[in-house]
Specification:
Elongation Factor Tu (Ef-tu), domain 3; alpha+beta; about 15% strand; six-stranded antiparallel β-sheet
Length: about 450
Amino acid sequence: MIKPVHIIGGGLAGSEAAWQLAQANIPVILHEMRPTRPTEAHATDKLAELVCSNSLRSDDADYNAVGLLHEEMRKLGSLILSKADEHKVPAGGALAVDREGFSEGVQAALASHPNVTIVREEIAGLPPEDWDSVIIASGPLTSPALAEAVRDLSGEASLSFFDAIAPIIHKDSIDFSKAWFQSRYDKGTGTDYINLPMTQAMYETFIDELLAGEKHMPKNWEGTPYFEGCLPIEVMAERGRLTLAYGPLKPVGLTNPHDPTVKPYAIVQLRQDNALGTLFNMVGFQTKLKHSEQLRVFRSIPGLENADFARLGGMHRNTFLNSPRLLDKSLRMKARPSLRFAGQITGCEGYVESAAIGLLAGRFATAERLGGEPSIPPITTACGALLNHITGGANAETFQPMNVNFGLFPEPTEDRDEKGRKIKGRERKKLYSIRARKHLAEWMGE
């Protein structure tokens, strides 16, 4: 009889790891502490809840590294990508989901699987010694008792950074005499975003109010850095008054049908958040403003004067391991190899990246349970490049959370066109994707 693999944490990584094991007929006990112990960011007790954006980012597998990672995960039988595709909502070239339907779909698949047992309990400390195969996928909001035990075992303190959540708005409270549907450069269906235009005077006033607004920052978090890939909007504004106009509020690729002769100085975009199209989140508006200030400042945006917020933004602190120092190539903790880590706690950043590392952890644990050795994916694949970065490719002294990107891949060796000229720019990215597909197929034995 095959002994079960224990998984701690029912987020994206833990759910994906459980699925990979279960599909290989390995029994899994999935331990999720919610609702017994809630977190500061989760709103439900569902597995694979998306606590920040509902977007899994670009789905372009030719020219974008995260889109390539999507493709690889689909080929590897990912539960997360399967349910994301099933609950997809319009988002231009991105893969965004109805967050409730997505989470419910993941939970239903695992709860009905004959090889999966879900236990609602907190693992307050290191797992028992007789759990000989454990995947800790407790995420950036790991319970304090478990986090402290892992820190003690590792011999060093975990790192921390701030993460932020953007507000969500009820569509029927938006003033469409000022707003309109359009995707930048008409990508996707061309109508995947709600756009809210600002004149220069409106923008300048908005920046003033944003900077002056009262912020929330618990004192015991002082000195903790922000993750650069998810900066609060007011922190971006502090870096320069034009930062937002050239960033999430850039007006390029959009035309206001209410006044097509006048180009807006800045445009706020809202992205669909559920399948019904009744909820929209504010793109790039993750914030640490106090709730009362969010209502005051964000309702000053044209079209949002009477906005009804389904959820306001917020901040929470995330923790992650110094994985290049602590983990081996198959995500096992060097100090205790029966423990394997997956997801954001390993220092990968992003929904897709977390799920991908969960997928690999599940495959590695499966190989061991069946008496084999884990097969490490080639570094030339998206999943292999990400794995390599967090298990030794990054400098342990300066390690910070990282999204997948082509900078993690080895340079392509065949990078000349038929005339011998070096391929550059957009087409160079496709070289990485072509090579990745070939090497992934070889690794999978196709």
